[in-house]
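A protein record pairs a chain with a discrete description of its three-dimensional fold. The following entry can be read in just this way:
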Amino acid sequence: MARYVKKDATGPMEIKVGGESKWICMCGLSSNQPYCDGSHKKTAGEEPGKIYFYKKDGTRTEVSSL
């Protein structure tokens, strides 16, 4: 089943747990959810106001503009 989830963050959120940093995925592309695996680097070059579709292999296609 396909699902559209709007995400516009281009980097992770740091959470401190017992003095140790944990990085939570905010872009939605990590294959290690909810943790960041560096997949947000694929969002480099996205243009504001445009919508992108990411395939499982990480390739990006522009869907439309807002």
In short: Residues 13-65 form one domain. The two ends are 25 Å apart (CA to CA). The chain has a mean pLDDT of 90.
